[in-house]
Every structure is written in C-alpha cells, then in structure tokens.
Amino acid sequence: MKLVYAAALCAVLGARAAYAEDVNLYANLGYGSLHGGQITTGEITGRIGARFGDYLGVEGEVSTGLGDHRYIYEPPCHAPVCTIAIFLLKAKLDNAEAAYAVGFLPILPNADLFARIGYGTSHYGTDGVIGRGFDPQGMNIGAGAQYFIDGANGLRFDYTHSDLHSNNAFGREALGRSADTWSIAYTREF
Question: What is the pLDDT of residues 67-88, one digit of tens each?
Fold first, then answer.
C-alpha cells in the first residue's frame, strides 16, 4: 500500500510541475470520531491532496488513534450445547491509510462542497487475554464542506462511511461491517 501512495505522490508532483496553473496542492490536519460496532474512538488524521482545476482531485490520508476502547468478544459456538466464553478486550487504532478520488463543487469563491470515494486499510491493536489485533479494510465514501478564511487557510468538515471486511473475528465483533467517521480539520492550500 505504501508503494501505491508513493506512486500517487509522484504523479501528483509531476502533474503539478506540468500544469502549475491548474493544480493546487493542499494539506489538512484534524480530529475525527469513528463509530463502528462496539467501538467509538477518536483519531488524528492528516491528508495531502491535489486539486485539478475547480472540480476534480485526489487525496491520501493517514490516521492514528487517541486512546482505546473496551469491547466484548464472544467466540462463536457451533455445537448444540456449549459454554460461551466472553472476553473483555481493549482496541486502539494504531494506524490507518486511505486514498480517494475527490469531486468538488464550488458554491462561493472561498467555499466548496465535496464528495469522495476511495479505499482504506487500518490496523487495530488489542490488549486482552486473546487476540493480537485486527486489520479491517474496504471501500470508503464520504462528503463534506470546506471554507477558506483568507484564500489559503480554512476549515474542513466531513463525514465518511466505510464498508469493512476484517481479517478475523475480533475485528468483525469490534467494528461490525461498517463504520462512520465525522471529522473537523484545519486545511491549507498551497
């Protein structure tokens, strides 16, 4: 996945050099709140992107979690009669990465609405009797708005829905099949 990000960054920088008047680079840093299954957690997210003209762009993001969240894991029981063990685990977002295609709709000279679609992957560490973490991944779709105070500095608000597929039962129990993230960020256009 890191190779994909490196290739995307090279393509963005190459496009910036070739079409300097039509490409604007931007970065933002903010706080997000993820809600999925049994987990609600905060995260710090950084993004870097390129906007090609008024309407299209690409962006990549990385996140790390703030704190951990406890959840209950109940192993599946397949026998007609069985004893169910219940484990209390703590999960923390160690890292998450995603890449998006972005569509912008300018509504004022200094304000935009946007929609984005992409793919993300993450790793959650668990602390408990069992489990070594889980790695959900899947398609993300979102929308939001941004407002630039002085043409280069602004605020961004967005919502992202993630359809998740986890690599093990710990992740399916913790997050379920989807998660929703609300975020606010400082944004800077270069």
Answer: 776 776 666 666 666 656 566 6
Helix (H, G, I), strand (E, B) or coil at 19: coil
Q: What is the DSSP pairing of strand 111-127 with strand 69-73?
A: unpaired
Distance separating alpha carbons of residues 29 and 63, to the nearest angstrom = 10
Q: How confident is the prediction for the chain on average, in pLDDT?
A: 83
Tokens of 110: 């200094």
Residue 166 phi, psi (nearest 5): -100, 150
* Residue 136 burial (C-beta neighbours within 10 Å; 0-12, 13-18, 19+): buried
Dihedral over Cα of 149, 101, 168, 1: its sign: negative
Residue 75, both tokens: 């192993």
